[in-house]
Amino acid sequence: MAIRGPIEGVAPDGAITHSTLTCPECGHAESLEMPPNSCQFYHECSGCHALLKPKTGDCCVFCSYGDVPCPPQQLAGKSCCARD
Ligand SMILES: [Zn+2]
Hints:
This protein has two helices and four strands; from the N terminus they run E-E-E-E-H-H.
């Protein structure tokens, strides 16, 4: 069973809530908190201020550029935006 408890960076349902996003434009990496039940489509790089958008087929910038996919992806194993 999943370990329950106040683990930093992990939501009660077991999802990792932080992802390190690496900018494809400048390579700047930053650790960001992800919204637990939704995806984040846009992110402005704090390094070069490029507006990052998901790659084709990905639901959010974390799935495209983060080291951890978004929580809905972690838990459901599918896109949080897909409606199939
Ligand atoms: Zn950048």
